[in-house]
Amino acid sequence: MNKAEFVERIAARTGDRAAAKEVVDVAIDEIQRAVVKGEKVSFAGFGVFEKRARAARMARNPRTGEAVKVKKTVVPAFRPGTGFKELVTGKRKAAKSATAKKAAPAKKATAKKAATKKTAAKKTTRAASTATRSTATSRVGAKKTAAKKTTAKKASTAKKAVRKTAAKPAAKKTAAKKTTKRGRS
């Protein structure tokens, strides 16, 4: 998944693509700024983004086998949390998250109306997100198919050109041999 696909998934859950893109951009920017300053950014259950210092060391050039000095460096690092590790290994299943905000009902009648509105909103949101996903995937599929076709055309044209150039010298050689044989007789 790339950044655009990530934004699309968030937009499908929240319903606002522009806000989702802004949130993702701001979150990434803030994480980067904090790590550059040397702070640890920790999300419970997910992991920690941090800045790590690597000491100077001796390494080997794989081509020559010669020893090379490597200077000390500072690199960004991510350390996954136990909850994230358990999800990846399959020890724990991911919990389904609710997309609609929960509100405390004041009266029973208003609670029923709110519940029916929420379910209707969920259905329309799901239908809209499904429609946008299918449209987006069909566009992506069409682009990939078009790209494959153009790549295939270029490859076949290149092969034909190679065949033609390879065939021409061979034809000239055989024609030259025939003329020399006729001249000797």
From TrEMBL:
Protein's GO biological process: chromosome condensation
Domain of life per record: Bacteria
Keywords: DNA condensation, DNA-binding
Keyword Lipid biosynthesis: no
Entry-linked Pfam families: Bac_DNA_binding (PF00216)
SMART domains, per the entry: BHL
Ranges of biased composition (kind: Low complexity): 96-108, 126-139
Region annotated Disordered, chain positions: 89-185
GO MF term set: DNA binding; structural constituent of chromatin
Gene3D superfamilies the record matches: IHF-like DNA-binding proteins (4.10.520.10)
Family to which this protein belongs: Belongs to the bacterial histone-like protein family.
Protein name as catalogued: DNA-binding protein HU-beta
Record organism: Glycomyces algeriensis
